[in-house]
Amino acid sequence: MKSSTRNPNPNPDTPRFGPSKLMLAFRFLRALTLVHRTAPNSSNAARSRRIQRAAFASMAYSAGPRRAWSRALLCRLHFHRARRRCARRSRAAGVPRRPSTTRSPADGLRRLVPGGTGMDYCSLLEETADYIRCLSEQVKLMQSIVDSVGPGGR
Amino acid sequence: MSSRRPRSWQPSSASRITDEQINDLVSKLQAVLPEARIRRSDRVSAAKVLQETCNYIRSLHREVDDLSERLSELLASTESSSAQAAIIRSLLM
């Protein structure tokens, strides 16, 4: 199988998490610890939002700047952080939301994939495939954390 | 890549991208979708693949939201050091 993922290890006996997935896990766990430590008494909703942002941030940092979707995510995350601290600004850095009269599946995809609105069709398809791969890795990671810590985990 | 080209659903006929390239990319996308959503052996239209892709991404986003909530509850209720120990154990084994 052509190794199109970042994991270069073709060994079928690889541990559950290869080197790139370990990096993802490490980043996410570090972010989780930070959330827990800095706001232990905040509401569940606020903490949950921070964890969700941490998930996307870990994904984007692990993918690095080589992907348009990860660059777009990192821009968005930094922009939101700056916007919270400063006075309200216009959505200049964001994408203007104009209602589209023609709804094609590609339009829907552009809205879902970070940075999608700025891409040509071919790049959109490539970026989407990579985005889905990384997103499902993130979901698997979060699920395994919940499984190990949750009721019955020790 | 021409950025002045309108981002229409179909690329214009004068583009340098061949239909074959696009079909290739669409089938690569189809390969990333889980089998439950769309069988990889099926020849489906590009529109269907994109539609299923949108649905799949939306469901993944929902899973991230849901798992974030559960993690948030777990963080609040679990002793921090034992949680970290459990996580690290599960990751390394």
TrEMBL record, chain A:
What residue ranges are annotated as transmembrane?
A: none
GO MF entry, a single one: transcription cis-regulatory region binding
Q: Name one Pfam family in it.
A: IBH1_N
Compartments, as annotated in UniProt? Nucleus
The biological process GO terms on file are: regulation of DNA-templated transcription
PROSITE patterns, per the entry: BHLH (PS50888)
Q: Name one GO cellular component term.
A: nucleus
Query: Which residues are in the BHLH domain?
Result: 86-135
Keyword Transcription listed = yes
The record's region (Disordered) falls at: 88-110
Coiled coil ranges (UniProt) are: none
Keyword Lipid metabolism applies: no
Q: Which family does it belong to?
A: Belongs to the bHLH protein family.
Name of the featured protein: BHLH domain-containing protein
UniProtKB/TrEMBL annotation, chain B:
Its GO biological process annotations read: regulation of DNA-templated transcription; regulation of growth
Top-level taxon of origin:
Eukaryota
Asked if the record carries the keyword Transcription, the reply is: yes
Gene Ontology molecular-function annotations: protein dimerization activity
Q: Which InterPro entries does this one have?
A: bHLH_dom, HLH_DNA-bd_sf, PRE
BHLH domain spans which residues?
6-60
Homology family: Belongs to the bHLH protein family.
- What protein does this entry describe? BHLH domain-containing protein
Q: Can you name the source organism?
A: Musa balbisiana
